[in-house]
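Curious: can you check?
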Amino acid sequence: MIYIGIDPDVTKSGVACWNKSTLTLTVQCLKFFELFTYLKDVGGPNRIFIEAGWLNKKSNYHGAKNRQYGERIANNVGRNHEVGMKIAEMCEFLGLKYELYKPDSAKTTPEYFERLTGIKTKSQEKIDAAMLVFQR
């Protein structure tokens, strides 16, 4: 069984692959259509876990000290949520089973991630994707 974790992002989404039979973990960042090709090639009956920030309680950034900064954050968050929804739609189109997960508020640090997995990366997208599937 292969578990795939996806942390959606506008530019490149974090993608982790946990092979339960070989106990190997790989992480990478893929553009939207690279991810489409990857999921099409991997196929089923694997399990896919998508980080779904839109399932969290709604928040806004109107209280930001700088209004433009708050609006930019809100715009970026909304764009990331839309990418995540499109990835879920992509899985449905490809006939792949997937589950949506609310992101944790606490982030795994790169240092802890390296101690846990042996993989050195500073990419929070890769780390978040891996934490969805690692050691399932």
Q: What stands out?
A: The chain has one domain: 2-109+116-133. Residues 16 and 130 are 5 Å apart (CA to CA). The beta strands are 2-7, 13-19, 24-30, 47-51, 98-101. The two ends are 10 Å apart (CA to CA).
